[in-house]
Amino acid sequence: MPDWLPIALIAGVAALAVLLLMLALRGRAAERMDRIAATLDAITAAQERLAARTDERMREQERALGQRLDVAAERTQATASAIQQRLSVIDSARQNIEALGGQVTSLAAVLGNKQARGALGEVQLRDLVQDRLPPSGFAWQHTLSNGTRCDCLIRLPFPPGPIAVDSKFPLEAWAAMQDAPDVTSRAQAARRFAADIRRHVDDISKKYLIPGETAEGALMFLPSEAIHAALLAQHGDLFAEAARRGVHIVGPSSFWAVLNTMRGLLRDARLQDEARRIRQQVEALAEETSRLERRVGALRGHYAAMAQDMRDIEVTAEKIARRGDAIRALDIPDETPRKAAE
Q1: pTM value?
Q2: Which burial class, exposed, middle or buried, applies to 215 when counting CB atoms under 10 A from its CB (0-12, 13-18, 19+)?
Q3: CA-wise closest residue to 227 among 156, 271, 173, 288
Q4: 13 assigned to some structural domain
Q5: What CA–CA distance (Å, rounded) separates 228 from 254?
Q6: N- to C-terminal Cα distance for the chain?
Q7: pLDDT single digits (tens) 188-231
Q8: CA-to-CA distance for 37 and 71, rounded, in angstroms?
Q9: Residues 6+ positions from 214 with CB-CB distance below 8 Å
Q10: Where in the sequence is the domain holding 249, given as residue range(s)?
Q11: Number of other CB atoms surrounding residue 232 within 10 Å
Q12: What is the DSSP letter of 75?
């Protein structure tokens, strides 16, 4: 045997083994490739499904986002409209405040003028009185028997009688007391204010309290509720002193309550007057009823006499009828034809 033959056999066997190994590896690789391809197909299908789900979710999110954006846009528009309305209200309020500032300035000018301030108090007095009392229950600028003229006279019956109302108020000392820069100036203004009030109360008690013509009390009307409250809180002794002199200091609210009471008094007086007139009419009606009864009695007597006369007439008529029947029953020869023949 040659020496190369074993080597060749070994090489051939090795080559055959390598070939068989390669074939086996190729089969396994094919299987693996098939498996890999199947896996890739599954992955591709899963990716496609995932992409479809992702697209669907994206579309849903886009729709939800669109709806949210629409709602947000509507809310934003509504908010903008509300802001615009509030800005309009604020602008209107600003204009009203500016107008009110001008009116306050005008009111300060009016209050600084005595005549204008008196006219303002009289206007407010007129509004309150005309709103609560009937036209016959008051008179404006009424002149009393002593020659003085009051702003308003409320015509209440006795008692208590007509009540005079004064709407003039000394405001200068009050304004000085409010604008005083220090305690000393405020105390001086307070003393001046108290003196002005006492002097005004004295004038009212002397001018508007007339025995037998007016009531025992008169009213001093303050056109400002704030001044009335501050005056009552800080100078209560002035109210008591004025009341002792027959002058009662009233503000708009308290005067409103007084007017309601006066309205009740006027209503009661009117009801009493109506009741008195009704009683007079009832008495007159009773008198007429008595007169009617007497006349009906006389008429009944006349009717009874007339009935008796009618019965007498009927009796006489019956007698006449019977006598006529008796006369017709007599046999009296008729001589009329004989006379006609002759």
Answers
A1: 0.47
A2: buried
A3: 173
A4: no
A5: 9
A6: 235
A7: 877 887 888 888 888 888 888 888 888 888 888 887 777 788 77
A8: 50
A9: 144, 153, 161, 162, 163, 164, 208
A10: 100-272
A11: 15
A12: H
